Structures are given as structure tokens and as C-alpha cells.
Amino acid sequence: MHATALLALVGATTTSAFTWTDGTLSLEWSFEGEGADEVIYMSFTLPSDIYIGIGLDCQTSADCDMIVGNGGGRNPAFIEDYNEVEGNREPHTDVELGGTSDVELVEAKYENWESTLRFRRKLDTKDKWDAVIKKVPMDIVYAWCEEPFCVDVHSAHAPGSWGMVQIDFSGENGLDFETEEKTAAVI
Question: Keyword Signal: yes or no (predicted)?
């Protein structure tokens, strides 16, 4: 079991922060603004200093909007907006596909063998390579680079270094800091 490292989301003024963990993936999110300007602040933690990633509104890696990066450690911290068009291949950045890079890194951290990336992004970026984030249950795919199988950002993750969950971004079925109810189901 991996230690859970969750970040407090500062500056998100319109909602409570919600959190979920399955012992490997930890997520925390909140929303700020409204309408076309509404953004999500999200942090996610996974066990790697090479790369960690989440796919939004995906049940497979094909045609999957992905946010990939790492928190530092032996490698420079980074975050990038990707889409894995074909599935089971190295993804392309949204910019390489003709879209835009819509993910803003707020904080990157590496401690206790885990990377945590905190970012912000509009719920609807209007980029065809990005999923629209909705305040409803959404499927999330996650993966991380685990040595010795995976050695750099161009390596595939190991067969067991991934998972899928359904996250209720509304928080209605979720764990906020006051209710302690579950926010996701493993799918």
C-alpha cells in the first residue's frame, strides 16, 4: 500500500474540496468560477518519478484525453496535455494534434516515492482533444511508470501499473472533508 499524499487546494472559492483514494491513486479536486470560465483544480498522486497520468472520460486508452507528468525526484517535474488517439501507443500532445495545451501546472512535488501533480484547467476547453469535465460520474483511467519495466517517458507502463475508476465529480456521492462518503467506484 502506498502512502496517500493529498494537497490542500488553495484559491478554489466556489466549492468544497473533494477527495478519493484507492490506496494507489489519490485525487483531490474543487471548482472555481462559473459558466464558460469555470475551472477545476485537481491534484493526483501516483508512485513514480518518471511519469504519472490520468485519462479523463476514458474506459480504454484509445481516444483518451490524458494529463501526464511527474513531481520531480530524479527527473525534472513536468505536466503535459496529451491524447492517445490509437490506444496502446505513445500519446501525442494536444498541440502536436493541432489542439491547445490547456493544463496549467500549479504545483509539482515528489516525496515518499510518489509524484503529486496539482493543475488547473477549464471544464470545457473547446479543444477537440480534451474531454469536457462534468460534475457527474466520469470514468478515469490512470497509469504510472514503474521500474524496471518502464524506464523513461517514452516507455509503456507495466501491465499492472494502471487502473480504472469512476469518479463522481459532483461530490454528491463523494467524500468532502465533512461527510466522509465515498466518491468513486472501481470499474
Answer: yes
Query: Could you give phi then psi for residue 72, rounded to 5 degrees?
Result: 120, -125
Q: Are strands 184-186 and 78-84 parallel, antiparallel or unpaired?
A: unpaired
Cell of 143: 497509469
Q: Which three cell numbers stand for residue 140?
A: 478515469
Give the separation between CA 128 and CA 65, rounded to whole angstroms: 10
18-186 in CATH: which number?
Answer: 2.60.40.1210
Give just the sign of the alpha carbon dihedral 63, 69, 75, 77. Answer: positive
Q: List pLDDT tens digits, range 84-116.
A: 887 777 888 899 999 999 999 999 999 999 999
For the beta carbon of residue 4, count every other beta carbon within 10 angstroms.
Answer: 15
Per-residue pLDDT of 40-68, as tens digits, reads 999 999 999 999 999 999 887 678 899 99
pLDDT over 90 (residue 20): no
Beta bridge partners of 79: 69
| Distance separating alpha carbons of residues 86 and 92, to the nearest angstrom | 10
The residue ranges of every structural domain in the chain are 18-186
Q: Cα-flanking dihedrals φ and ψ of residue 35, to 5°?
A: 60, -140
Residue 105 has what pLDDT? Answer: 96
Q: pTM to 2 decimals? A: 0.80
